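Office hours follow-up: a student asked to see two folded examples consecutively, so here they are.
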Amino acid sequence: DRAEGVRISDLSVIRTVDQTGDAIDAVEDPFRTGAMRVVPNIDLPISKGANAQISAYLTIYPDGGARVPSVTFEFKRDGALIGRSTAELPPPDDTGRIKYVASFPTETFAPGNYELRAVATQGTTSADSRTLFTLIP
């Protein structure tokens, strides 16, 4: 059922992005955007030495109005807020969704356990999603 206000999918840290070509899926794949498919990182530690950035994927479902929502990402380490970043979102696609990939440089993070939270805001409503990841040297 369509809820009032902006909605957001589960937030996923990306393991890899695969090329899918132009073929149409028989069943809609929520991790596909254009000719790419996002493969989420469920629980593998991310090597800071092998990865210049950490990327995350989410889908935002705006509440039909003309105003494009905003999204803010928050990083916590050991329960303490250590960083915040706001992204400018593109307009919704022809289905009304905004599929979005955000990337953050690993050089700004020390190895450890992190929580990443995305907060989508549109007008007076907001929705959030969280995920965990571990960064190793």
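And the second, which I mentioned at the end of office hours:
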Amino acid sequence: MTSYSSPKPLRWWQKHRNRVLLVGLLFVLPALVNFTVFRYIPIIGSAWYSFWDYSLLGGFREFVGLDNYVRALTRDSSVLNGFRVTLLFVVLKVPLQVTLALFLAVFASQERRGTGVIRALIFIPVVTSFIVVSIVWGMLLNRDIGLLNSLLQTLGLPRQSFLTSPTNALPSIVAIALWKDVGYSVIILVAGLKGIPVMLYEAATIDGANARQRFLFITIPMLRRALTFVIITTTLFSFQMFIPVYALTGGGPGQATNVIVHYVYQQAFVYSDMGYASALSIILLMILFVVSAIQLRVLRGGDS
């Protein structure tokens, strides 16, 4: 009767397990510290501040309980406008970004000469500072000296007030954000497309499926997880849009682009009402949690 002996990898793991776990912890420690210091602690702090009449200059003045939440939900019409503008921004941007990213990903995933250059050009805006992008687009869209209006005038068309018109300002912000963010979605979808077995397309072609049928019945279903990720992250980022509004319109003209995050900024750093701004932030956090949970359940409803 032979005695059982542990395989060498198992014996090595049992001997060095603590050391391996320590090394792994050291690798993830910077990320853990980053999330703890810049995400979790601020969230907990905001939840605490939201129950106080608190300002950066005056400190904690009075415990007000839920009054900041009641004020936000019942007495401040600007909050409703902020969420309305934000929702309109999301409704405009998310479908456009996902659709455009999907078609660009299909194009960029094809192995042709120069495809690498095309992928790089699509992704360059993603790694460019958003404040720089906003300033450059602000100059391009300027009514008096902007390049786009000069082109329109050359073609005999009237100049447009892209950023100073209540009608055009929000769509202009959507276009700028779309140009900046679509590359990230494209890279995620290209990675998903690369994971689809080629044999599925070959079998469908043999069975007589055309390009449209292969796209609808193979590409879309096989990209379900990647599309779910792209839709949810795009929605979350869109709800938190701030930089182009801050840099180009300041929430105007009027309240046409005053998205909720910009309104939170105004309450916190313009009017120094940090307690109220914290309450608005917590309300936004709860909305994002609910929206992302619903999206995840709907988009992954058929997954096991």
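Two things to take away from it. The first strand starts at residue 52 and ends at 55. The mean pLDDT is 89.
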